[in-house]
Amino acid sequence: MTSLGTSPGTSPGTPFDLAGLTAIVTGANTGIGQGIAVALARAGAGIAAVGRSSMDETAGLVAGTGAPFLEIRADLGSTEPLAGIVERTVGWSGRADILVNNAGIIRRADAIEFTEEDWDAVMDVNLKSAFFLSQAFARRLLEAGRPGKIINIASMLSFQGGIRIPSYTASKSGLAGLTRLLACEWAARGINVNALAPGYFVTNNTQALREDPKRSADILGRIPAGRWGKPEDLGGAAVFLASPASDYVHGVVLPVDGGWLVR
Ligand code: NAP
């Protein structure tokens, strides 16, 4: 088995180079997924962008980097498309080296009246599909005897409780645990499994919070960096976890939060 350190495009002295590698990024049409897809493309990776909405905007941004781009339409609310996502990517580029499990949803309601529908919808996208897509990706790598990198997009709710988002907190806490379990199972087999835990970022996910003047001011007041995150703030950490620079990093949940957790 080769290590990513000797993979195509990795030139000496540049352990963050992703040239010649292919990354699958779910939920890449907007927000954090789009920011990560563009960062990985800038580092040289071809991007297989997975989601249920048009990827035209992301396709344009990736084209600007010169990296190859493939759009894969899939609804990650079910496990049905997952194996096909890996197969289509490999059919397109001949390889799949990096998987970013980014697609996610949030449903807000008091725990006392939270519905089963809101529980299942969030768990299916945020946790179940992330696990079974990781499984399909890892099966392919292990069969081919190739190394790879999985990056799960966790949350502050992987560490904290939050309020009014019971299935989201359960899913993101679960994703942190799953990151650790998969790291334990696959580290010796050439697959790094890690997670990024964004703090409070300006995306569709946080629109309701940002529109609530009190919640918005309370959140901002607790962020030592003094501002909400922007999707591009995650780019460097994503490239690190996708690249040979992190070959000996396994099972971490890395906060990128403007200092939120240390407050
Ligand atoms: P977003 O703009 O709402 O992005 C969510 C992405 O997931 C979109 O691309 C969305 O596609 C996709 N998605 C949702 N359900 C899907 C489904 N059934 N099938 C396929 N794709 C689906 O919010 P975001 O903040 O960028 O969220 C990205 C990830 O970061 C999520 O896992 C979120 O939990 C996590 N996160 C966000 C923050 C934050 O402050 N924003 C903080 C911590 C963690 P559509 O556009 O088609 O819905």
UniProtKB/TrEMBL annotation:
Enzyme Commission number(s) from the entry: 1.1.1.127
Any one GO molecular function term: 2-dehydro-3-deoxy-D-gluconate 5-dehydrogenase activity
Transmembrane segments: none
Keywords, sorted A to Z: Oxidoreductase
Pfam families: adh_short_C2
InterPro entries (UniProt xref): 2-deoxy-D-gluc_3_DH (IPR011286), NAD(P)-bd_dom_sf (IPR036291), Sc_DH/Rdtase_CS (IPR020904), SDR_fam (IPR002347)
Keyword Transcription regulation: no
Family (UniProt): Belongs to the short-chain dehydrogenases/reductases (SDR) family.
PANTHER family: 2-DEHYDRO-3-DEOXY-D-GLUCONATE 5-DEHYDROGENASE (PTHR42760:SF5), SHORT-CHAIN DEHYDROGENASES/REDUCTASES FAMILY MEMBER (PTHR42760)
Protein name from the UniProt record: 2-dehydro-3-deoxy-D-gluconate 5-dehydrogenase KduD
UniProt source species: Skermanella cutis
Primary gene name: kduD
